[in-house]
């Protein structure tokens, strides 16, 4: 009888649903075995199994990759909305302070918008309208991690659209400065909560090889939101500016409501079937997710066992070092001066002797922000993060120093 050309292939499931093949040595390497009708298990130890790479002709459903990109784009509409909130004051305060006059006691800014024409803001009040957003962000960021772990990552993010929408309604309809204060503070709470709630959700749904790219969506969307806010500033109406800004959280809510909950969170709540369905949604219907579900269960158990307590954050030496580095970077980032520039971009450009209009110059600034953010994410694959941070801080110091020299003391 003729020799069999190939041995039988068998597939085994490996991590993340991928499959590899186990194949025995060709029978030609064993000259003593001439009968191919003899069952393989009758050959004793003559069968040697080798693990090969994934077979090329076994096609993996790639629809899950597209789904992950679309989901990341939808959930990061929250970051987009945060960028719009940052840019709002640049356009709104210029529109609402078209007439400024000064007496011996104070500077008074007269609001001449169509919504509340009698509203008057002092420079101090105008600065509070801008900066209360950051104060609200601090208050929103602190409890969000705990809330998302107990209430659900999707639900936490989804319902953040409501306070953001309320904030725009307050800002657009407030008859006095206190309504503006409340509106901006409430909007800041949502902005801070988005910054904490979005990254864990992306980490839960993304495949390992896509995670670096999808994680950078937050920063790119935030920059695009700033640019969108500056573009909306071309409309010479605070009411329309608020309306356009409010459309972003509405779009986020409508789109995100159809996205499943985080599979990791569902597993932590004991909802195994729902977790499998959610993971199947993100990986593609035709892909097997049993191995990944098993890995997620193990990760969830290990996380529960090794969870760091609040006390250990400040007592364990490694945790203290990580906290110092994290807080240090965030403090330097907040004090770098980028937010005052974004808050008052049009006012700054109005003082410059340039041919561009303040809104047009602000839009160019927004394009620069988007471009630098995008290229920075590309450079992360080739340049060390520490080098990028040092370069960023140095560039910001030089630019703000030049800006400071331009204005008289």
TrEMBL record:
Species name: Papilio xuthus (Asian swallowtail butterfly)
GO CC annotations on file: plasma membrane
Superkingdom: Eukaryota
Gene Ontology MF annotations: transmembrane transporter activity
The protein's name in its UniProt record: Sugar transporter
Membrane disposition: Multi-pass membrane protein
TM helices/strands, residue ranges: 69-90, 126-145, 157-175, 181-202, 214-231, 237-259, 322-342, 362-380, 387-407
Keyword set, alphabetical order: Cell membrane, Membrane, Sugar transport, Transmembrane, Transmembrane helix, Transport
InterPro entries: MFS_dom, MFS_sugar_transport-like, MFS_trans_sf, MFS_Trehalose_Transporter, Sugar_transporter_CS
Classification via PROSITE patterns: MFS, SUGAR_TRANSPORT_1
Composition bias, Low complexity: 25-43
């Amino acid at each position: 009888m003729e020799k069999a050309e190939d041995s039988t292939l068998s597939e085994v499931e490996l991590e993340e649903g991928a499959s590899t093949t186990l194949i025995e040595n060709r029978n030609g390497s064993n000259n003593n075995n001439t009968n191919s009708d003899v069952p393989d298990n009758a050959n004793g130890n003559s069968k040697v199994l080798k693990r090969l790479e994934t077979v090329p002709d076994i096609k993996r459903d790639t629809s899950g990759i597209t789904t992950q990109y679309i989901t990341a784009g939808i959930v990061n509409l929250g970051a987009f909305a945060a960028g719009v909130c940052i840019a709002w004051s640049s356009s709104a305060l210029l529109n609402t302070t078209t007439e400024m006059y000064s007496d011996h006691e104070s500077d008074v800014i007269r609001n001449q918008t169509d919504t509340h024409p009698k509203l008057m803001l002092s420079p101090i009040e105008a600065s509070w309208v801008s900066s209360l957003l950051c104060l609200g962000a601090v208050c929103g960021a602190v409890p969000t991690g705990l809330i998302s772990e107990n209430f659900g990552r999707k639900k936490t993010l989804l319902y953040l659209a409501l306070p953001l929408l309320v904030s725009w309604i307050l800002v657009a309809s407030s008859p006095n400065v206190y309504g503006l204060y409340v509106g901006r503070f409430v909007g800041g709470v949502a902005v801070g909560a988005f910054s904490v709630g979005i990254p864990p959700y992306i980490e839960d749904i993304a495949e390992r090889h896509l995670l670096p790219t999808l994680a950078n969506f937050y920063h790119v969307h935030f920059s695009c939101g700033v640019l969108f806010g500056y573009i909306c500033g071309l409309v010479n109406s605070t009411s329309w500016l608020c309306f356009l800004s409010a459309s972003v959280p509405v779009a986020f809510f409508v789109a995100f409501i159809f996205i499943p909950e985080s599979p990791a969170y569902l597993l932590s709540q004991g909802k195994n079937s729902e977790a499998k369905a959610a993971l199947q949604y993100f990986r593609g219907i035709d892909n097997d997710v049993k191995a990944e579900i098993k890995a997620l269960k193990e990760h969830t158990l290990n996380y529960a066992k090794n969870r760091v307590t609040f006390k250990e954050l400040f007592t364990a030496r490694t945790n203290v070092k990580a906290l110092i580095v994290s807080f240090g970077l965030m403090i330097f980032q907040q004090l770098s001066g980028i937010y005052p520039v974004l808050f008052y971009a049009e006012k700054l450009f109005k003082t410059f002797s340039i041919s561009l209009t303040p809104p047009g110059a602000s839009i160019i600034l927004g394009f620069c922000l988007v471009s630098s953010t995008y290229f920075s994410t590309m450079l992360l694959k080739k340049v060390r993060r520490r080098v990028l941070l040092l370069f960023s801080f140095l560039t910001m110091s030089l630019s703000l120093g030049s800006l400071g020299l331009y204005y008289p003391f």
